């Protein structure tokens, strides 16, 4: 009997000699496996062609059919030949319109301003005695208040009125006179009593016939004219 390489050289030398044949053996084995598998598929019957029979004495259930769909809408009546089918128009529901709520105003209420009280000290202007080149005039200062009050008379004359000759107050302390441009200002020497009057009189030179001033005020209020 011939000794193999496994016996003479040991296991390692025998394995080294067998390695070149290993791929060939594996390839042959795979080829045989594919041949057997293909033959098995060709010889086996198709599963789809197999008809499963019902067992004796057993009835197969009937196939399920879809239930008829019923509609709640009325079925339109068949129209006559040549008649137009009615047009179904969709109906619309009008939504209520919301009216915006009225918001309270954030502005503070208007505060009524108190009306200025009527002046208690007033003046009335008049020309007492007109002459050719001069005249005598008067401002009657009246105190309608409940207490004595001081007064200030201010006169402004047009160009035809010339220089002031003299001025005085009847039966009372004399006022203080000052001038600022064409303005003549008298300040009371003593308060006028409540419910009383003080006549301020003056004499002016002039070239016209009218001795009416262009401005007359008593304590800032306009004078009346007579």
Automatic annotation (TrEMBL):
**Entry-linked SMART domains:** CBD_II
Q: Any transmembrane segments, and where?
A: 20-40
| Keyword flag Transmembrane helix | yes
| CBM2 domain span | 114-226
Biological source species: Actinoplanes flavus
User: Keyword annotations for this protein?
Assistant: Membrane, Transmembrane, Transmembrane helix
Pfam families, per database record: CBM_2
The Low complexity compositionally biased stretches are 65-118
Instruction: List, alphabetically, the SUPFAM superfamilies matched.
Output: Carbohydrate-binding domain (SSF49384)
- Recorded protein name is Cellulose binding domain-containing protein
Q: Where is this region: Disordered?
A: 54-118
